[in-house]
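User: Can you predict the 3D structure of Regulatory protein VirG? Sequence below.
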Amino acid sequence: MREDVTKTDAILLVEDDAEIGELISRYLATHQIEAAVVADGRAMDATLAARDFDLVILDLNLPGEDGLSICRRLRDGANLPIIIVTAQGEDVDRIIGLEMGADDYIVKPFNPRELLARVRSVLRRSRASAQTKEPAGGRFYQFEGWRVDIMAHQVTAPTGMKIALTGAEFDLLYALCERPNRVLTRDQLIGLTHGPTASPFQRSIDVLISRLRQKLESDPKNPKLIQTVRSEGYLFAPQVLRA
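Assistant: Sure. Here are the predicted C-alpha cells for Regulatory protein VirG:
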C-alpha cells in the first residue's frame, strides 16, 4: 500500500528536550518522514536558511525566543505549514498560536501515532494546495467583487489586490464557497478543513473564522460575508458564482 507521505517529505522539529526530539525523529523515520531536530529559534533559523522543509513542528515552551514569537515570524516570512505543540491545559497558548497562523496543534503528552496522523493530514492539505487539478464546474469562485482562483490558490480583493491566505484559511474559504447560504456547524467545518484526524477543539474553527474575517470583511466586528448563527455555526452569506 502506498504511504500518504513520501521519502521526500522533510520535517523540522523545534524541541529543546533532546530525548523527546530523538524519540520523535526515530518514530517518524520509520514512517518514511525525515525529521531534523533543533533546540531553539536561532538554530531553527540557521537550519531553514540551509535547506528546505515541508513542515515545522514547533514546541511553544522553548528557551530564549518563545514559540509564539517564532510562530509569528514563520508565518510572516513564508507559507510553511506549522504544527504547534502545547502543554496540557494551555488553551490560551493554543488559541494564540492558531490566531498567529499555525495549521494545527497537538497537546503534550501525546501518542506518536497521533502526531503522525496530524503530520500526514497537514502535509496532505499542503500538497493539495499545490496541485493544479481543476474542480468540476470551473476554477474560479466570485462573490461581492472577490475572486478565488482554486488552481493557483490565489484570492483577489475587489480592489485587485492579492490577499495572502494560509493553507488552513484557504481550505476554510474553499469549504464556505462550496456551500454558500447554508448553516455549517463547527464540527462540519472541522471535518471539511482538517479531515478525519481533526481535533475536537472547536475553538480552532472560531479562530480560523476570525482570521478569515480580518482579511475579507470591511468591518470584521460586524461581518456581512461570514455570519455567525447563534448556537448553530456559521453561514457564508454572499451569492457565489463559479466560472
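The chain has two domains: 10-130, 140-242. The helical segments are 18-29, 41-50, 67-77, 91-99, 112-130, 167-178, 186-194, 203-216.
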